[in-house]
Amino acid sequence: MSTRTLHRQLKEEGASLQQLKDEVRCERAKELLYRSEKPVRQVAAATGFRTEKSFIRAFKLWTGKTPLEFREAQQT
User: Fold this and answer.
1) Which homologous superfamily does the CATH classification assign to the domain defined by 22-75?
2) 22-53 core/surface letters (b: 16 or more CB in 10 A; e: else)
3) 5-18, pLDDT tens digit by residue?
4) Contacting residues for 47 by C-beta, under 8 A, at least 6 apart
5) Distance of CA 17 to the CA centre of its chain
6) I want to staple 49 with a disulfide (CB 3.0 to 4.6 A). Which of 1, 43, 44, 64 is the partner?
7) At 69, phi and psi to the nearest 5?
């Protein structure tokens, strides 16, 4: 399947490649934050972010919480 075909089919479904990528990254980040004690820096790297700062910004946009706030809420 060509890239153009993939983008067209995703658009027909009301989705985008970036949206799907973000969903996967968010779920992976949540899992790592919940199931491990890895530092946020390592979670950022494991989910494909170049910097911790950009990961924190994206995570807060996705969930409304910083990674540390999310982790703390899961522990209570």
Assistant:
1) Homeodomain-like (1.10.10.60)
2) eeebbeebbebbeeeeeebeebbebbebeebe
3) 888 888 888 888 88
4) 25, 28, 29, 32, 55
5) 13
6) 44
7) -60, -40
